[in-house]
TrEMBL record:
Organism of derivation: Galendromus occidentalis (western predatory mite)
Compartments where located: Membrane
Family named by the database record: Belongs to the peroxisomal membrane protein PXMP2/4 family.
GO CC aspect terms: membrane; mitochondrion
Keyword terms: Membrane, Transmembrane, Transmembrane helix
Gene that encodes it: LOC100899995
Membrane-protein topology: Multi-pass membrane protein
Parts of the chain that traverse the membrane: 52-68, 149-168
Protein name, per record: Mpv17-like protein
Amino acid sequence: MRDLLRRKPLLSNVASYGSLYVGAEFSQQTVIRAWDEECKDEPYDWKLMGRYAVYSMALAGPGLFYWFRWLDRKLPGKTFGTALKKVCADQLVSSTGCTTVFYVSMSVLEQKEDKFAELREKFWPTYKVSCCFWPPIQWLNFLFVPPQMRVITVGVASFVWCNILCIFKRTVQV
């Protein structure tokens, strides 16, 4: 794995991130089937998982790869102060951008008439939860994780985060 990360860092990070992201939607659908008798026999929504794959592998994964690279160049090191600056920048820039791109890209892929309706309705509730979820994870990420492993680390955390997004997407109605 380390050799692949060194030889093809973008590809390996994006593939890992995308697999974890799509896996989160798969797990979400599995849990819904287990808990809701009415959904028990419904087929998996592979088109929805495909949309999550497009978002995670074409947009979020590469975006995070280049974002962390840029952030590490602008704020090198792993000191307490540097990690704090990276966490603040990540929450203000990356989390805001990823949340925006998530809702708009999903609306585009779902061919919704108003591509920004879901963003207007769900951005602030989602962002507030992200302010509780991501800073502690990114704090650990920036202090202890080698730069080439950061997107994968975020991918593991995104497995949980994507389940949260799936809940927002399913429960907050536009």
